[in-house]
Structures are given as structure tokens and as C-alpha cells.
Amino acid sequence: MYEFLTGTVVEITPSYIVLENQGVGYLVYCANPFRYEENTETKIFVYQAVRENSITLYGFKTSSEKKLFLKLLDVSGIGPKSALAILANDDNRGLVFAIDNDDDKYLTKFPGIGKKTAKQIVLDLKGKLSDLDSESFAGQETLDLSLNVDSKYLNESIEALLALGYTKTEVKKVAKKLQDFDGKSTDDFLRQGLRLIMK
Predict the structure, then answer these.
(1) Neighbouring C-beta atoms of residue 53, cutoff 10 Å
(2) 4-60 architecture in CATH?
(3) Taking every annotated instance into account, which residue ranges of this chain make up the domain Helix-hairpin-helix DNA-binding motif class (predicted)?
(4) DSSP of 8-61, one letter per residue?
(5) Over the stretch 103-152, which tens digit does the pLDDT of each residue have?
(6) Where are the domains of the chain?
(7) Strand ranges in the chain using DSSP code E only, listed in sequence order
(8) Does residue 181 come out as left (phi exceeding 0), alpha (psi in the -120 to 50 range) or beta?
(9) For the whole model, what pTM was predicted?
């Protein structure tokens, strides 16, 4: 089992990145691939899922994110795609707070999470995430909104939201608001889009 990989990011898509290490390209599914930059040396914490007909790598910016992902997978009704969609929201501290305070309404805002699954998340994880709360999560910093960007970033962020499982209707509403957003990267647009969806 892998704990982490270090290599160069050679490709970024809405749902995964390709990390090259000593001539081998690892396809790694991520909650927000646009957090990474192409042609940069990166350390990614990984979880390897082995199934009957596939071996899949899931990647995380920090060990805290990986631990939270694994705890989410332990919940009945939560698969890797749903867990990644939950982690794509930058407010992981808010997620821990919602679980510890029985806020299932907050949890149902994530794609594929109905009321029953939200209640199950609270039931299974309430009071069990305190060890993560003290650690740093990726992407908690304030966005720098001072630079205008090309619409390429908007388009990539929309593709990423769809890849996470949000509906076209949800994404369309957010896309209209994002047209006036001043970000400097696809990551900025995606984070803002997720914030708007979670409101």
C-alpha cells in the first residue's frame, strides 16, 4: 500500500492528475485536481483502492485530507466519488463542525448525499473527527481576488464541478455568478463555485 508519491505533475484534468515518477505516470483521482500545477514537483498522499477488476489511486494534499477520506469511506452509502466530492469543498473544518452538530442539512448539499446518507454520516462520524480538526487542511487560505482571468478557468471549473457529480442545473446557476468572479486560476474558480453551491 502506498502512503504518498512524489513526482512531477504532467497532466491535469477535471477529475484526475497524472504524476510522473521515474518514467512511470500515475493516474491519481483528486477532489480538486486544479490545486496542482503542471510541470511542478509535488508530494501527494495517496490511497490505493483494489477491486476485482481495477486498481485506483486517490490523491490528497495533506495527510488530514486522506484520513478524512478514509473515515468517509467507512460510512455506509459513501463511495470514493462521493467522498471526493465532499472533500472538494474547501471548508473541511466546516464539515467536521456540521457532523459534530448534527447538521445533516449541510451534508445534503453535496452531490449524491441524500437525507438518509447524511444522517448516517453524522451517526458514524460524530465525535470521531476531533483528531483531524487540529491538523491543517489544504485550501483553507483566503483567495486573492485581485487579478482578472481568461474564461478558460471558468470553463475548466465547470467541467470539474460536473466531474464531481453536481447536476447541470446546479452548475448552470453557479456558472452565471462565476462570470463576474475575479480569480487568478481554475482552482480559484472551482473553490468559489463550491462555496456558491454550498450556500
Answers:
(1) 4
(2) Beta Barrel (2.40)
(3) 70-89, 105-124
(4) EEEEE-SSEEEEEETTEEEEEEES-GGGS-TT-EEEEEEEEEEETTEEEEEEES
(5) 989 999 898 899 999 999 999 999 888 766 444 454 443 333 333 444 78
(6) 4-60, 63-133, 151-198
(7) 4-12, 16-21, 24-30, 41-51, 54-60
(8) beta
(9) 0.72
